[in-house]
Amino acid sequence: MQDYIIRATAADDTIRAFASTTRQMVEDARCAHDTTPVCTAALGRLLTGGIMFGSMLKEDKALVTLQIRSDGPAGGITVTADSHYHAKGYVNNPHVQIPLKPNGKLDVSGAIGSGTLTVIRDIGLKEPYVGTIQMPSGEIAEDLTLYFAESEQIPSSVGLGVLVDRDWSVKQAGGFLLQLMPGARDEVIDILEKRIAEVSSVTDMLEKGMLPEDILESLIGSFGLQISEKHEVSFACNCSKERIERALISIGPKDVREMIDEGRPVEVGCQFCGKKYRFDVEDLKRILAFQQKR
Ligand SMILES: [Zn+2]
Q1: 197-210 tens-digit pLDDT
Q2: Which DSSP string corresponds to 108-161?
Q3: Domain check: are 80 and 182 in the same one?
Q4: Domain limits at 267?
Q5: CATH number for the domain that contains residue 278
Q6: Distance from residue 214's CA to the centre of ligand 1 (Å)
């Protein structure tokens, strides 16, 4: 099934909601970075969150980057999503393996550790909008929930889930985001809080065969759910040899000269998607000449 996201409202537009399936997107990320299960889960959750952040962007060329800087063995995670339902991302140490939690689940917070979550929204203005929080859990969904409350003053509930199969492929992935808009009535908030506390995990719902529509129906169906948009989502990178070349230019002439002195082509991988670009000695000489002209 193709991954997709839906956008909806309920309770006379005082609830804004998103839900998505992202199995293929997370599987593509896993294959791009050869991640271990705990890193697949961590990256997959942040990618799924990223897709929902990205779908709130209105501007054509807008980008949102979610950046975790933390002290756990997996190191940080970076995800970038655009306003066209594409996301890309990477884990600093994608091959980390740590024991499961006592309940048999992947220990995402153990792999991430403690640190900060930064959200950078670039909507084409001179300065991007940047908000940072101290992560309360490292489980990502709770961290994004707190980000919305603290940084944007929007009461929200985020649910994210990635289920990794025995052969390390991605079996299920998806998530939801509910937000209370100004004017939400107290009784709506009370019922919603109760519903969110009762609801099973996102992976359980997906394992039962529930679609994003069903997930929102189970959460806010009684408030007059209205689905307004549905879009395909995917893991996609916009890298090119020119972009990677710009990164090489920025590392400085000393390193480029060393590569030239080695006398053989170098392969430089894109951080976000792992695609390899080959630069032969002639390319490197051209880059060095450009650096020296600056
Ligand atoms: Zn790339």
Answers
A1: 998 899 999 999 99
A2: HHHHH-SEEEEEEEE-SSSS-EEEEEE-SSSSSHHHHHHHHHHHS---EEEEEE
A3: yes
A4: 241-293
A5: 3.90.1280.10
A6: 34
